C-alpha cells in the first residue's frame, strides 16, 4: 500500500466516525461501523477452519 492510499483510507474512516487519530495512536471509535465499512464477514473464518484451508 502506498502512503497516499493509506492516508485516503484513514481520512474516510475519520470522516465516517469509525476511528480517530490522536498523537500517533489510532482509536476505534465505532467497531460496528468499521466492520460495515470494511465489508468484513466473519463467516469466512469459520469456513476456512472447517475445510482445513
The gyration radius over C-alpha positions equals 14 Å
Give the ordered list of helices and strands. HEEHH
β content, as a range? 15-25%
Instruction: Provide the residue-averaged pLDDT.
Output: 86
Largest sheet: 2 strands, antiparallel
Number of domains: 1
- How large is the count of helical segments? 3
Give the helix proportion (percent range).
Answer: 55-70%
Alpha-beta content class: alpha+beta
What separation lies between the terminal Cα atoms? 26 Å
Q: Order of strands across the biggest sheet?
A: 1-2
Cα shape = globular
The parts where pLDDT drops under 50 for at least 5 residues are none
- Number of beta strands: 2
What does the model show?
The chain is α+β, with helices and mostly antiparallel strands. It is 58% helix and 15% strand. It contains three helices and two strands; from the N terminus they run αββαα. The chain has helices spanning 3-16, 31-38, 43-51; strands at residues 19-22, 25-28. A hairpin with a 2-residue loop joins strand 1 and strand 2 (25-28). It starts with a helix and ends with a helix.
Lay out the secondary structure.
Elements: H1 3-16, E1 19-22, E2 25-28, H2 31-38, H3 43-51
Antiparallel strand pairs: 1-2
Amino acid at each position: 500500500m502506498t502512503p497516499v492510499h493509506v492516508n485516503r483510507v484513514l481520512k474516510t474512516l475519520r470522516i465516517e466516525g469509525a476511528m480517530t487519530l490522536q498523537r500517533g495512536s489510532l482509536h476505534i471509535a465505532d467497531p460496528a461501523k468499521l466492520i460495515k465499512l470494511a465489508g468484513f464477514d466473519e463467516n469466512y473464518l469459520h469456513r476456512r477452519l472447517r475445510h482445513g484451508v
